[in-house]
Each structure stands twice: as C-alpha cells, then as structure tokens.
Amino acid sequence: MTTNNRANFGSKLGVILASAGSAVGLGNIWRFPYMTGEHGGAAFILVYLGCVLLFGAPIMMAEFLIGRRSQSNTARAYQKLAPGTPWRWVGRMGVLAGFLILSYYSVVAGWTLEYICAAGLGHFADKAPADFVNFYNSFVGHPWLPVVWAAVFLLITHLIVVKGVEKGIERSSKLMMPLLFILLLILAICSVLLPGAGQGIEFLLKPDFSKVDSNVLLSAMGQAFFSLSLGMGCLCTYASYFKPDTNLPKTAFSVAIIDTSVAILAGFIIFPAAFAVGIQPDQGPGLLFVTLPNVFQQAFGGVPFIAALLAVMFYILLALAALTSTISLHEVVTAYLHEEFNLTRSKAARLVTGGCLVLGMLCSLSLGLGKDYTLFGMTLFDLFDFVTAKLMLPLGGLFIALFTGWFLNKKIVREELTNRGTLHLRIYGLIIFLLKFVAPIGIAFVFINELKLL
Ligand code: PFF
C-alpha cells in the first residue's frame, strides 16, 4: 500500500529525539523514581541498567529492523515479513495495547496540567502534608475535572499527530526534548544543592546489594520494557519512517542511554529534595502527586515564589515527557487505521482520539464515582495498566525476540543491522545471542512470575 512514498523523518537528530521522546515519559519521571524508592535505591538502578543492556537494547534493535524492513505499520509489518503465519497477531496485539495504554496514560498526563495550574496559582503555598493527600484524592475522584484535562491532553496529541511525521512528530520532538533536558538539569541542580541533600545522593549512588532479591530483578525488567516503549510495536512504527542509512544499533543505544539518563536525573531531582526535608522516598505511586508538592513546599517554602516556580517547572517537565510519549502511542494506532482501512490520516487520528476519550473517561471515572465497579477485583484504570504493562508488553517483547532471533531470515536481520553490509558491527553475534536466548528466557521468567504461576 502506502510504501513507496512513505513519510520519513527528515534528519538523524529527528530520529533520535522522536524515538527518545517516545521512551522518555511518565515511566521515567513517575514510575522509575518510586520503584527505585521502593526497591532500595542504587542496587535497583544497577539491576535496571543490566536489564536495559541485556534485554532492552537488543529488542529495540529488533523492533527497529522489523519496522524499517517492512516500511509498514506494526500489524502489516509481520504480514509482510512472515506472510500467512500467525505472527501478524503480534502486531495486532501491539496496536490494541497502544490504544489501551493511550487511554489511561492520557488520564495521568492530564493530571500534570491540573498540577501546573494549581502550583502556578499558589494553591500549594502554606499547605500541611495532609492537605496534599486531600488535594490529590479530591481531584482524582472529581467526576469531570480530570476528564476535561485528559481531553485537553488528547487534543494536543491529536493536533500534533495529524500534522504528520516530519512536520508534527519530528518538529515537536525537536522543540520539546531540549526543553525537557534544560528543565531536568535546572531542577536537579536546585535539588542537589539543598542543605541535607547528601543522604538522597548517597541513596542513589551507594548500592546496598542485600536489597536485591528476585522481586527487584523482576520489577527492574518490567520497568525497562515500559520505559523503553518496547513490546507493542511503537518503535517499530517509528522505524518504518527511518531512512535506509539510519544506523539502527547506534540509534537504539542512543535512545537507551537518553532514556536511562533522564530516569536517573529524575531521581536526582526527587531523592535529594525528599531526604533534605526528611521525607522517606518509599511512598509508591503517590510519590509525584502527593509527596513531591509537599517536598517543594517544605524545601523552598521560605521563598513561596521559588517554591511555586520550581513546582510549575517540574509539572511542565512531566507534561512534556508525557506528550512525546502519547504522540508515539497515538501514531501506532493512527498509522494502522490509516494504512489498513484506507482512511485518511486525519480521519484515522479522529477515530483514535475519540475512542481514547471515551475509554479514558471511563478509566478516570473508575477512580472516583465508579470505584466500586470492579472487574477481576480491579478498577478499569488498574485493569488497563495490568493488562497492558504486565501482560501485553512482556508477551509482545517475548514474541519480537523469538521472531527476530529464530524465525526471520538471517540475511534480512544482518542486512538491516549492518545497513546492507556498509556498517561494521562487531557485536552482531552478541545481539543475536541475546535475542535468541537471553531475552526470551528472561522475559518468560518475568511473565510467569507476574501471573503468579510460580
Ligand atoms: N515509554 C513511555 C514512558 O516511559 O512513559 C510509555 C510508553 C510509551 C510505553 C509508548 C509504551 C509505548 F509504546
């Protein structure tokens, strides 16, 4: 179909920033710090780094090569490379996962907009710790306010996606990613310079290996998948817009390094500030929306303007990171509908936005008015998170590794990873070994554990 004059990213920098934009998101700035806090700091970070190198980077290369070779959306990619086989279901499952993740991810992304406004309007000044809990609970449980913010977030995502690959996705990533790095650096420096920040820095740098148990290993691996946007064809879709001379292994390493650096820098914002005001970092998912506003208030509250400014900057940072990820999730589904059902790009995007709006509204309501309605003992919001992040992504990653390592023609794999023999790739054998054995066995282990089958 639309393969000959397919859209392309215009530059190498655009490729890296758009892919890193997909990877850098709420997973880095929200999920990574609270997981690090819960699993003992530096030891968790080391295990996480191992997972990124052993599973994350090779599977990212696999997604890249499938996407660029097939020049198609993720569902058609498998149909093209393995016609008439059930592998096409791996791509279709990815599209469904993208749609579901976008629905609930937009809800959390919308919260960042409310927090930008609340911090900017000075609503956090003079609040006691318990007030932040009340603020969070009453906002999240509000019948329509979070839905409105989720809709605003989806609309912004929509407007960027309909502009297309180069003018929408690439241009917005080139603008937002540098801004995101600047905000990260300013906030990390402010946090590290606080009196009493040393304990937080130590927590991030001094590993305590007595904390490493199988649970830490498994959590780190799940986090690596979510954070690197792997397992659902997101980077596969982006790679279908790469040019033939894009160096796939190098791009994968660059994205993995950027993603990991942002996660660690987010840790350097949160932990030094939290320790400086005597707040323990093991507070779970509420860390960013309950603990952190309190931390800003206590650490910089002497000068209310500075406290408000830093909090606004932090939530803008979070919103930017989330936006570059929602764009990539949206693109997976839009490209699928556009190419498979012959819809115009803008019609396909409208369907995705509309569908996610309805599901997002239900997810948001399931945290407030509808919290008594559960399915398998979970609210709709939790169910979507569980089904996608814990089931569909690891399963997708497992199949992608098996497909590339065992099924796909070796010649195709080599041609794509070496740009038809023009790149000298010394670790080619290692990459194939990781895809054939290490990644499938490791993921199967996580997957079985998640299902509590062991
Ligand atoms: N990687 C994103 C994050 O860390 O927030 C989340 C994500 C985006 C997951 C795109 C999966 C995906 F396809």
Features:
74% helix; 454 residues; globular; mainly alpha; binds 4-fluoro-L-phenylalanine; Hydantoin permease
CATH fold group: Hydantoin permease
Shape annotation: globular
Q: Give a short account of the largest sheet.
A: none
Q: Over the alpha carbons, how many angstroms does the gyration radius reach? A: 21 Å
Ligand list = 4-fluoro-L-phenylalanine
Helical/strand content category: mainly alpha
Which range does the strand content fall in? under 5%
**CATH C-level:** Mainly Alpha
Q: Per CATH, which architecture?
A: Orthogonal Bundle
Measured between the Cα atoms of the first and last residue, the distance is 45 Å
Mean pLDDT across every amino acid position: 92
Give the % helix: over 70%
What does this protein look like?
The protein has 18 helices and no strands. The chain is mainly alpha-helical and 454 residues long. It has a single domain, classed as Hydantoin permease. Helix 16 (380-407) runs antiparallel to helix 18 (428-450). The longest helix is centred in the last third of the chain and has 37 residues, at 304-340. It is globular. The N and C termini lie far apart (45 Å). The mean pLDDT is 92. 4-fluoro-L-phenylalanine binds at residues 22-23, 25-28, 98, 101, 226-227, 229, 232, 234, 325, 328-329.
